[in-house]
Amino acid sequence: MNIQRWIARRESNWQRLDALLKQIEKRGLKSLRAAEIRELASLYRSVAADLARARTQQIGNTLIQSLQSLTTRAYTQIYQGSRRQEWQAILEFYKWGLPDVVQKTFAYIALATALFILGALVAWWYSWQNPSFMTLIVPESLITKVRDDHKLWMGSIVGVEPLASSSITINNLSVSFGAVAGGITVGLYTAYLMIFNGLLIGAVGTLVGQNNLAYPFWAFVFPHGSLELPAIFFAGGAGFLLARAILFPGKYRRGDALKFYGSQAVQLLFGIVPMLIIAGTIEGFFSPNPSIPDVIKYLAGMGLFIFFVMYCIRKKA
User: Fold this and answer.
1) Residues 6 or more apart from 304 whose CB is under 8 A from it?
2) Mean pLDDT in each 10-residue stretch from start to end of the chain (317 residues)?
Protein backbone atom coordinates (compact mmCIF):
# COMPACT_ATOMS: atom_id res chain seq x y z
CA MET A 1 0.00 0.00 0.00
CA ASN A 2 1.26 3.47 -0.90
CA ILE A 3 0.95 5.09 2.51
CA GLN A 4 1.31 8.70 1.38
CA ARG A 5 -1.32 8.28 -1.35
CA TRP A 6 -3.71 6.58 1.13
CA ILE A 7 -3.24 9.36 3.68
CA ALA A 8 -3.82 12.04 1.04
CA ARG A 9 -7.01 10.29 -0.09
CA ARG A 10 -8.40 9.81 3.42
CA GLU A 11 -7.23 13.01 5.10
CA SER A 12 -10.18 15.10 3.93
CA ASN A 13 -12.55 12.77 5.79
CA TRP A 14 -10.51 13.09 8.97
CA GLN A 15 -10.50 16.85 8.73
CA ARG A 16 -14.24 16.97 8.07
CA LEU A 17 -14.97 14.74 11.08
CA ASP A 18 -12.70 16.89 13.23
CA ALA A 19 -14.56 20.03 12.10
CA LEU A 20 -17.97 18.52 12.91
CA LEU A 21 -16.75 17.36 16.33
CA LYS A 22 -15.37 20.80 17.17
CA GLN A 23 -18.75 22.30 16.30
CA ILE A 24 -20.56 19.80 18.55
CA GLU A 25 -18.09 20.26 21.40
CA LYS A 26 -18.54 24.01 21.21
CA ARG A 27 -22.28 24.37 20.44
CA GLY A 28 -23.83 20.97 21.09
CA LEU A 29 -25.30 18.24 18.87
CA LYS A 30 -28.40 20.32 18.18
CA SER A 31 -26.26 22.75 16.19
CA LEU A 32 -25.95 20.13 13.41
CA ARG A 33 -28.53 19.73 10.68
CA ALA A 34 -30.07 16.32 10.07
CA ALA A 35 -27.83 15.74 7.03
CA GLU A 36 -24.75 16.64 9.05
CA ILE A 37 -25.72 14.18 11.79
CA ARG A 38 -25.98 11.41 9.18
CA GLU A 39 -22.62 12.54 7.79
CA LEU A 40 -21.12 12.41 11.28
CA ALA A 41 -22.19 8.79 11.74
CA SER A 42 -20.88 7.83 8.30
CA LEU A 43 -17.53 9.55 8.91
CA TYR A 44 -17.17 7.87 12.29
CA ARG A 45 -17.53 4.43 10.71
CA SER A 46 -15.13 5.37 7.94
CA VAL A 47 -12.46 6.74 10.28
CA ALA A 48 -12.83 3.72 12.60
CA ALA A 49 -12.08 1.54 9.57
CA ASP A 50 -9.09 3.74 8.74
CA LEU A 51 -7.79 3.32 12.30
CA ALA A 52 -8.05 -0.45 12.03
CA ARG A 53 -6.19 -0.37 8.72
CA ALA A 54 -3.49 1.93 10.10
CA ARG A 55 -2.90 -0.45 12.98
CA THR A 56 -2.76 -3.47 10.67
CA GLN A 57 -0.28 -1.79 8.34
CA GLN A 58 1.69 -0.31 11.26
CA ILE A 59 1.65 3.07 9.57
CA GLY A 60 3.06 5.00 12.51
CA ASN A 61 2.27 5.79 16.11
CA THR A 62 1.58 9.49 15.51
CA LEU A 63 -1.09 8.84 12.88
CA ILE A 64 -2.59 5.96 14.86
CA GLN A 65 -2.85 8.11 17.99
CA SER A 66 -4.43 10.90 15.98
CA LEU A 67 -7.04 8.57 14.48
CA GLN A 68 -7.62 6.96 17.90
CA SER A 69 -8.32 10.38 19.40
CA LEU A 70 -10.67 11.24 16.54
CA THR A 71 -12.69 8.03 16.83
CA THR A 72 -12.88 8.33 20.63
CA ARG A 73 -14.24 11.87 20.37
CA ALA A 74 -16.75 10.78 17.75
CA TYR A 75 -17.85 7.77 19.80
CA THR A 76 -18.36 9.97 22.85
CA GLN A 77 -20.54 12.46 20.98
CA ILE A 78 -22.59 9.89 19.06
CA TYR A 79 -23.30 7.41 21.84
CA GLN A 80 -23.09 9.43 25.03
CA GLY A 81 -24.75 12.32 23.24
CA SER A 82 -27.65 10.06 22.25
CA ARG A 83 -27.97 8.94 25.85
CA ARG A 84 -28.17 12.57 26.96
CA GLN A 85 -30.87 13.11 24.37
CA GLU A 86 -32.76 10.10 25.70
CA TRP A 87 -32.71 11.53 29.22
CA GLN A 88 -33.78 14.89 27.85
CA ALA A 89 -36.66 13.20 26.04
CA ILE A 90 -37.74 11.49 29.28
CA LEU A 91 -37.64 14.77 31.18
CA GLU A 92 -39.55 16.47 28.37
CA PHE A 93 -42.21 13.76 28.52
CA TYR A 94 -42.81 14.18 32.24
CA LYS A 95 -42.66 17.95 31.92
CA TRP A 96 -45.09 18.35 29.01
CA GLY A 97 -45.89 15.02 27.37
CA LEU A 98 -47.81 13.43 30.24
CA PRO A 99 -50.09 16.43 30.86
CA ASP A 100 -50.78 16.54 27.11
CA VAL A 101 -51.77 12.88 26.87
CA VAL A 102 -53.91 13.18 30.03
CA GLN A 103 -55.81 16.03 28.41
CA LYS A 104 -56.23 14.13 25.14
CA THR A 105 -57.50 10.99 26.86
CA PHE A 106 -59.52 12.70 29.57
CA ALA A 107 -62.82 11.13 28.43
CA TYR A 108 -61.44 7.62 29.01
CA ILE A 109 -59.95 8.57 32.39
CA ALA A 110 -63.29 10.17 33.34
CA LEU A 111 -65.10 6.94 32.42
CA ALA A 112 -62.82 4.94 34.72
CA THR A 113 -63.33 7.51 37.49
CA ALA A 114 -67.12 7.41 37.05
CA LEU A 115 -67.19 3.61 37.37
CA PHE A 116 -65.10 3.82 40.53
CA ILE A 117 -67.42 6.45 42.03
CA LEU A 118 -70.47 4.40 41.01
CA GLY A 119 -69.05 1.38 42.85
CA ALA A 120 -68.30 3.50 45.93
CA LEU A 121 -71.83 4.95 46.01
CA VAL A 122 -73.45 1.53 45.57
CA ALA A 123 -71.36 0.08 48.42
CA TRP A 124 -72.08 3.08 50.65
CA TRP A 125 -75.83 2.85 50.06
CA TYR A 126 -76.19 -0.90 50.53
CA SER A 127 -73.79 -1.03 53.48
CA TRP A 128 -75.91 1.49 55.36
CA GLN A 129 -79.17 -0.24 54.38
CA ASN A 130 -78.01 -3.80 54.97
CA PRO A 131 -74.91 -4.40 57.16
CA SER A 132 -74.55 -7.94 55.83
CA PHE A 133 -73.71 -6.48 52.40
CA MET A 134 -70.42 -5.24 53.82
CA THR A 135 -69.27 -8.77 54.58
CA LEU A 136 -69.44 -9.60 50.87
CA ILE A 137 -66.64 -7.13 50.15
CA VAL A 138 -64.66 -6.35 53.30
CA PRO A 139 -62.62 -9.12 55.01
CA GLU A 140 -64.22 -10.33 58.24
CA SER A 141 -61.02 -9.77 60.23
CA LEU A 142 -61.00 -6.10 59.26
CA ILE A 143 -64.67 -5.69 60.15
CA THR A 144 -64.07 -7.28 63.54
CA LYS A 145 -61.08 -5.05 64.30
CA VAL A 146 -62.99 -1.86 63.48
CA ARG A 147 -66.40 -2.84 64.92
CA ASP A 148 -65.33 -4.73 68.03
CA ASP A 149 -61.92 -3.25 68.89
CA HIS A 150 -62.68 0.28 67.55
CA LYS A 151 -59.23 0.38 65.95
CA LEU A 152 -57.93 0.97 62.47
CA TRP A 153 -55.57 -1.56 60.90
CA MET A 154 -52.89 0.82 59.59
CA GLY A 155 -50.83 0.65 62.79
CA SER A 156 -49.36 -2.63 61.55
CA ILE A 157 -47.32 -0.61 59.03
CA VAL A 158 -45.42 1.26 61.75
CA GLY A 159 -42.06 -0.37 62.35
CA VAL A 160 -41.92 -2.16 58.99
CA GLU A 161 -42.16 0.91 56.75
CA PRO A 162 -39.70 -0.13 53.99
CA LEU A 163 -41.28 -3.56 53.58
CA ALA A 164 -44.79 -2.15 53.73
CA SER A 165 -43.98 0.60 51.24
CA SER A 166 -42.53 -1.82 48.68
CA SER A 167 -45.40 -4.27 49.13
CA ILE A 168 -47.98 -1.49 48.71
CA THR A 169 -46.26 -0.21 45.57
CA ILE A 170 -46.04 -3.68 44.03
CA ASN A 171 -49.70 -4.35 44.79
CA ASN A 172 -50.82 -1.03 43.30
CA LEU A 173 -48.68 -1.59 40.21
CA SER A 174 -50.20 -5.05 39.70
CA VAL A 175 -53.73 -3.62 39.96
CA SER A 176 -52.87 -0.83 37.53
CA PHE A 177 -51.18 -3.13 35.01
CA GLY A 178 -54.20 -5.42 35.27
CA ALA A 179 -56.50 -2.50 34.50
CA VAL A 180 -54.43 -1.59 31.44
CA ALA A 181 -54.20 -5.19 30.22
CA GLY A 182 -57.95 -5.49 30.81
CA GLY A 183 -58.39 -3.51 27.63
CA ILE A 184 -57.83 -6.69 25.61
CA THR A 185 -61.04 -8.07 27.16
CA VAL A 186 -62.77 -5.19 25.35
CA GLY A 187 -62.61 -3.30 28.65
CA LEU A 188 -64.70 -5.72 30.71
CA TYR A 189 -61.94 -6.60 33.17
CA THR A 190 -60.92 -2.93 33.36
CA ALA A 191 -64.49 -1.96 34.23
CA TYR A 192 -64.64 -4.75 36.82
CA LEU A 193 -61.48 -3.51 38.56
CA MET A 194 -62.74 0.09 38.63
CA ILE A 195 -66.12 -0.92 40.08
CA PHE A 196 -64.65 -3.43 42.54
CA ASN A 197 -62.14 -0.95 43.93
CA GLY A 198 -64.94 1.58 44.23
CA LEU A 199 -67.09 -0.95 46.09
CA LEU A 200 -64.18 -1.67 48.43
CA ILE A 201 -63.46 1.95 49.33
CA GLY A 202 -67.19 2.66 49.68
CA ALA A 203 -67.76 -0.27 52.02
CA VAL A 204 -64.66 0.47 54.11
CA GLY A 205 -65.61 4.14 54.27
CA THR A 206 -69.06 3.17 55.57
CA LEU A 207 -67.54 0.76 58.10
CA VAL A 208 -65.26 3.38 59.64
CA GLY A 209 -68.05 5.96 59.51
CA GLN A 210 -70.42 3.70 61.44
CA ASN A 211 -67.78 3.23 64.14
CA ASN A 212 -66.69 6.89 64.49
CA LEU A 213 -63.29 6.31 62.90
CA ALA A 214 -63.86 8.24 59.69
CA TYR A 215 -61.65 11.21 60.60
CA PRO A 216 -58.42 9.23 61.27
CA PHE A 217 -59.19 6.85 58.39
CA TRP A 218 -59.48 9.59 55.78
CA ALA A 219 -56.46 11.33 57.30
CA PHE A 220 -54.56 8.15 56.45
CA VAL A 221 -56.03 7.93 52.92
CA PHE A 222 -55.70 11.57 51.80
CA PRO A 223 -51.87 11.90 51.55
CA HIS A 224 -51.19 8.88 49.33
CA GLY A 225 -54.67 8.66 47.83
CA SER A 226 -54.15 12.02 46.13
CA LEU A 227 -51.78 10.22 43.73
CA GLU A 228 -52.76 6.57 44.11
CA LEU A 229 -56.38 6.98 43.03
CA PRO A 230 -55.60 9.18 39.97
CA ALA A 231 -52.97 6.59 38.95
CA ILE A 232 -55.62 3.85 39.08
CA PHE A 233 -57.98 6.05 37.04
CA PHE A 234 -55.20 6.62 34.50
CA ALA A 235 -54.73 2.84 34.30
CA GLY A 236 -58.44 2.40 33.74
CA GLY A 237 -58.37 5.07 31.04
CA ALA A 238 -55.47 3.28 29.34
CA GLY A 239 -57.44 0.01 29.41
CA PHE A 240 -60.47 1.70 27.85
CA LEU A 241 -58.23 3.18 25.13
CA LEU A 242 -57.21 -0.34 24.11
CA ALA A 243 -60.85 -1.44 24.26
CA ARG A 244 -61.78 1.49 22.00
CA ALA A 245 -59.20 0.38 19.45
CA ILE A 246 -60.65 -3.14 19.41
CA LEU A 247 -64.34 -2.26 19.43
CA PHE A 248 -64.47 1.07 17.61
CA PRO A 249 -61.38 1.54 15.43
CA GLY A 250 -63.22 4.25 13.48
CA LYS A 251 -61.35 5.52 10.43
CA TYR A 252 -58.38 3.29 11.25
CA ARG A 253 -57.85 -0.35 10.48
CA ARG A 254 -57.94 -2.28 13.75
CA GLY A 255 -54.18 -2.84 13.75
CA ASP A 256 -53.52 0.85 13.13
CA ALA A 257 -56.06 1.78 15.81
CA LEU A 258 -54.25 -0.44 18.31
CA LYS A 259 -50.98 1.30 17.47
CA PHE A 260 -52.53 4.77 17.81
CA TYR A 261 -54.54 4.24 20.99
CA GLY A 262 -51.97 1.80 22.35
CA SER A 263 -49.33 4.53 22.12
CA GLN A 264 -51.48 6.79 24.28
CA ALA A 265 -52.12 3.95 26.72
CA VAL A 266 -48.37 3.30 27.04
CA GLN A 267 -47.74 6.98 27.72
CA LEU A 268 -50.32 6.89 30.52
CA LEU A 269 -48.60 3.79 31.86
CA PHE A 270 -45.27 5.64 31.95
CA GLY A 271 -46.99 8.30 34.03
CA ILE A 272 -48.57 5.78 36.40
CA VAL A 273 -45.32 4.13 37.53
CA PRO A 274 -43.65 7.14 39.25
CA MET A 275 -47.03 8.20 40.68
CA LEU A 276 -47.46 4.84 42.39
CA ILE A 277 -43.87 4.74 43.62
CA ILE A 278 -44.36 8.14 45.26
CA ALA A 279 -47.78 7.13 46.62
CA GLY A 280 -46.39 3.87 48.01
CA THR A 281 -43.59 5.76 49.76
CA ILE A 282 -46.08 8.18 51.30
CA GLU A 283 -48.39 5.33 52.35
CA GLY A 284 -45.55 3.43 53.95
CA PHE A 285 -43.76 6.27 55.75
CA PHE A 286 -46.05 9.30 56.08
CA SER A 287 -49.73 8.28 56.12
CA PRO A 288 -49.58 5.81 59.07
CA ASN A 289 -47.09 7.83 61.14
CA PRO A 290 -48.79 8.46 64.51
CA SER A 291 -46.49 11.39 65.32
CA ILE A 292 -47.92 13.44 62.44
CA PRO A 293 -51.21 15.20 63.35
CA ASP A 294 -54.21 14.21 61.25
CA VAL A 295 -54.81 17.82 60.21
CA ILE A 296 -51.32 17.91 58.66
CA LYS A 297 -52.12 14.73 56.74
CA TYR A 298 -55.32 16.28 55.39
CA LEU A 299 -53.50 19.44 54.36
CA ALA A 300 -50.67 17.45 52.76
CA GLY A 301 -53.12 15.30 50.79
CA MET A 302 -55.16 18.24 49.57
CA GLY A 303 -52.05 20.24 48.70
CA LEU A 304 -50.55 17.34 46.75
CA PHE A 305 -53.82 16.78 44.89
CA ILE A 306 -54.14 20.47 43.94
CA PHE A 307 -50.52 20.47 42.73
CA PHE A 308 -51.18 17.32 40.69
CA VAL A 309 -54.30 18.80 39.06
CA MET A 310 -52.39 21.98 38.17
CA TYR A 311 -49.66 19.81 36.65
CA CYS A 312 -52.15 17.84 34.54
CA ILE A 313 -53.90 20.90 33.10
CA ARG A 314 -50.73 22.79 32.16
CA LYS A 315 -50.13 23.46 28.49
CA LYS A 316 -46.92 24.08 26.62
CA ALA A 317 -46.71 27.65 25.40
Assistant:
1) 223, 226, 227
2) 78 88 80 81 87 80 84 79 64 88 96 97 92 86 85 62 65 88 95 95 92 93 94 96 92 88 93 92 87 95 96 85
